[in-house]
Amino acid sequence: MGRFLFHALAIAVALAVAVRIVPGLQATSALPLIGAAIVLGLINAVIKPLLVILTLPITILTLGLFYLVINSMLLALTALLVPGFTVGSFWSAFFGAVIVSIVSSLIGALRPS
User: Fold this and answer.
1) How many angstroms separate the Cα of 95 from the Cα of each of 1, 15, 70, 92?
2) Hey, where are the domains in the chain?
3) pLDDT in tens, 50-107
4) Is the pTM of this model over 0.85?
5) What angle do CA 82, 88, 91 make, to 5 degrees?
6) CA–CA separation, 86 vs 82, rounded Å?
7) Inter-axis angle of helices 30-54 and 2-21, to 10 degrees?
8) By C-alpha distance, which of 33, 44, 31 is closest to 4?
9) Which has the closest alpha carbon to 79: 67, 65, 96, 66?
10) What are the distances in angstroms from CA 36 to CA 60, 62, 95?
């Protein structure tokens, strides 16, 4: 449970950074960011592995770039499920997913084992 909470906090910080950098990503306050982080964490734990397996051939064909499209779709799905958190377009979701991936990876690298 502690790992999930740390991961959700890392995603919340990453989403806050993405909302400030990427035009088209908006959050009305900190509460939707926290809700979006929890929902995105659950989506990443449940739906993402299935999508990765189902789209493995196209991901290999595109040398892994389709993985970014999967992350974009999951961020857009999160925006549909969380009121107060919106994604304006596919490109907003795409660049937001890239920022969230980079920032959450950096924060995750700082976590003690």
Assistant:
1) 29, 11, 12, 5
2) 2-110
3) 999 999 999 999 999 999 999 999 999 999 999 999 999 999 999 999 999 999 889 8
4) yes
5) 115
6) 8
7) 100
8) 44
9) 96
10) 29, 29, 17
